[in-house]
Amino acid sequence: MAEIACTHCNLTFDESVMITEKQNDKELNFCCKGCQGVYHLLESEGLDTFYDKLGNTTLQPASTQISADLEKFDLEGFKNKYIKSTEDGLSEIHLIIEGIHCSACVWLNEKVLHKTNGIIEASINYTNNKAKVVWDPEEVKLSQIIETIRSIGYNAYPYDPSLQEERANKTKKEYYSRILVAVFGSMNIMWIAIAHYAGYFTGMQQNFKDILNVAEFILATPVLFYSGWIFFRGAYYGFKNHIVNMDTLVASGALSAYIYSIYAMTTQHGEVYFDSVVMIITFVLVGKYLEVLSKKHAVDTLDSIMGSTPTEVTTVKNSIKSLVSVENIQVGDLIELKPGEKVVIDGQVTSGQGSFDESSLTGENEPVFKQNGDTVLSGSICLDSVIHYEASKDVSGSLLTSIVSLLEESITKKPHIEQLANTISGYFSNIILLIALLSFAGWYYWSGNFETALIIGISVIVIACPCALGLATPMATLVGISIAAKRGILFKEATFLETMAKSRLLALDKTGTITEGKPSVIKAEFYGDFDPALLLALVNTSNHPVSKGIARYLIQENDTLEPVHITAIKSIEAKGIEAEVDSKKLLGGNASLLQERGIKVDTVSENTLFLFAVDGTVAARFELTDTIREGAKEAISAIQKMGIKIVMLTGDHEQSALKVANAVGIQTIHAKLLPQEKSALIQDFQKKGEVVVMVGDGINDAIALAQSNIAIAMGQGADVAISVSDVVLLDERPQSILDAYTLSRRTFSAVKENLGFSLLYNVIAVPLAVAGFVNPLIAALSMSLSSLIVVGNSMRIKLLKFKDLSHE
Amino acid sequence: MSENIVILMIGVSTFLGALGLIALLWGVKTGQFDDQSKFIDAARYDGEEELRDAVMMQKKQEMQNKKMQKKKAQKKKEEEEKKKKNYMPAD
């Protein structure tokens, strides 16, 4: 049997399972009805050039979408939340389009939307797959638009961009425009200034000097007032709150130099300082822009945690099933859960039994078996059976909702660690302004010449050059985060490097962080003629983590496994799976399932057991356990050697927590913690003055992550955990935590060096200015040089060598 | 070298540069640099068909605008008529 590719989605499947059809001597193969439907739709619309554009990219097989929830898009409440009405009576919505794999998908979606009547504008961002759609509500309804997107095999859900994302983009754009003006101004002024400098040494006629002065003046004005507006604003707010900050220094320095230069230009004696004005503004603005650029993206995924939960549940009343919106569920209502459904309302099981995935609450991937009388918690997922349960709380009182509200609270409560540069620049600005004032007063008193005294005063502020100071932190941290990104450590904001370097306490989650978070085979025994292909086919039918662990193991151990077509698949609640192939009966599951069927098995094991029987005889026996990540022990001991205390926080019970803790060498453990307890513990540490770094991966860690000073999430972790975290480890190696520490400390020391240097520079340069030895050329040179030194020193971070623990 | 030449040289070059800067600022303002991948990816789908598509969208927009104008005009008329109705000649 050969593998062939689906005509629509390009995924390869076995020939026997494909839907084939003939069309004009061309043979078409589809993996499912969904793909077939989409193909014919595109063809009839004349959009089949999509497949040429697609090339060899594989898509997600198009699912035959249910249209039951389409109505919700036309409801009043939905409209108020997501749809914006423009002045012309048009509606506007922002959508995230799911299932986009390549630019051809973007093309197709845009094309189809453009062809839809009533849609006035549809643009999809190639980078983040977010779409903006404007339509005429009189001609087309939103539900029809969503249906159109679904009909071609994608899905769309709305999001609210007015939150922080839009604001962040706006600031970025604003800074970008200001920098463009500043760079344009300073570059042009520099070449005019060179003519000026040449004039010092060779002599220049006053009339030429005047031309150059006026040209510089024209160029400097927009730079000072447009690009430098940010500093004036900052200085104003500082003044209002009685704080002298960097902005005060920059604004007063640039403005006074500018005013003096105008005076020098009009009276035709003295030198102009326009080049210094634009240079100060440009350098410090670039530093600020680097900070804005690396600012963390706002948490807009909080919407998605609520967005992914069902908005309706099936209730059973007098044996009549009906879909009811979750807000209308009252305590005591009977709710039906189907396999794969997410629980939104807490309750108690009244009939049926089955296993639940509670990983979003406890972090444990092992499903929990529930039967009559057991409590069902919202956020868990029903895995394998139909269950009826009685609501014990309404939706706002349910665990999932309270976790979300706690999360929102923690994000706003997150303690702020003051950056070193900010602390220093406050003092620095005060001192410089004072020195400038004193030297002005001194010179005026001793020389009696007002003009000279003014020049000296201004030159002190200009030469004190906040450039190096302004670049010290952003430059170093930018280099730091780019190196981190190359190693698969994503710092969402540059300042997090500095905060992390100050941390002395590391809190680790157990499952999914220290351990793999999924059961893997540690022991396998085979009896008789065991055929791994049969077992693979069997376990592939189940989503249970144990089945997945077995499947992974089989694929790893056997190079090629021929797919086997099995029939009569039946999953037995919380115990195993059963199927038939060529009149052979296959059975896979835990020990009690096999014992029930009268098969004798060895049940002695401290790990999870999975047994596989063919026609009543055991063919294979597997022991599975959640294994500790490779290199965890080495990484933990190396971090401890750096003088960082490590604690383990877990929702698991004490025994298994201790086992893992002993294996990796952690002394302090806190077990059996609920999500909010983890966060409370972090808060306790912070009250004791600790800067806490927390590593976690699940929804259950999200609140604690949001509370900690630095939150590190595993790249495969839950979306919410990733979105509230400050650092993401893409490769999930424990060594990356160590690397993150090493790098943040190295970066912070570079920041300190940079700050130290710029202070040292001032200690030398300011007395020169006070003594009156500074002219525009010296000011420009020293400014550029000091900034270059800061940049160069920051580049040295690139030389940092990381310890490779795996080869020790 | 006379002063006028220097003024002309500085003036013309700065003016040309400023034109470029204004074009760039306009690009930033209208969101042309918002989508990095579009630079590379969208170029592949830039053909005759896409041009026709764009024209179609523009026509749609124009039609919409016309419709709105009509509506507004109608509204205005209605309001005026109302005013007229309300107007009572003094007898």
Q: Would you kindly provide a written description of the structure presented here, covering whatever features stand out?
A:
The complex is a heterodimer of chains A (about 800) and B (about 90). In chain A, about 50% of the residues lie in helices and about 20% in strands. With about 800 residues, chain A is of the alpha+beta class. Chain A starts with a strand and ends in a 13-residue tail after the last helix. Chain B is built from three helices and no strands. The longest helix of chain B has about 40 residues, at about 50-85. The radius of gyration of chain B is 26 Å and the shape is flat. Classes of the chains: A alpha+beta (about 800), B mainly alpha (about 90).
Give descriptors for this structure:
heterodimer; A: alpha+beta; Ribosomal Protein L24e, Chain: T; Alpha-Beta Plaits; seven-stranded mixed sheet; six-stranded antiparallel sheet; 31 strands; 19% strand; B: mainly alpha; 2 domains; 0% strand
